[in-house]
Amino acid sequence: MDHSEQLARVRAEVLRYLEDHPHAADTAEGVCRWWIRESRFGLSEVTVQKVLETLVSEGHMRKVQLPGGGVVYGRKDD
Asked: N or C: which end of the chain has fewer CB within 10 A?
């Protein structure tokens, strides 16, 4: 599977997870570890981060900066 196919699969998995769990929110590490089935096969957090940032820029997700410097991603409220 090439990189663009991997990005498309991760994107689909994140959006599917949010459909099933509309109030879910997590860090990129948490999304990689718990939301994406493919992560068991060596998916990098960098790839997940790229997909999350794209989904934020497209208006599908929100990005919340935490006081301690962390970032949490979740479904954007309509």
From this structure: C
Q: Based on the structure, what is the number of domains in the chain?
A: 1
What is the domain extent for residue 68? 3-75
CA distance 40 to 62: 25
78 residues of the chain, pLDDT tens digit each: 678 888 898 999 999 999 999 999 999 999 988 898 765 566 788 889 999 999 999 999 999 999 998 999 999 986
> Which 8-state DSSP code applies to residue 31?
I
CA dihedral 19, 16, 8, 34 (to 10 degrees): 110
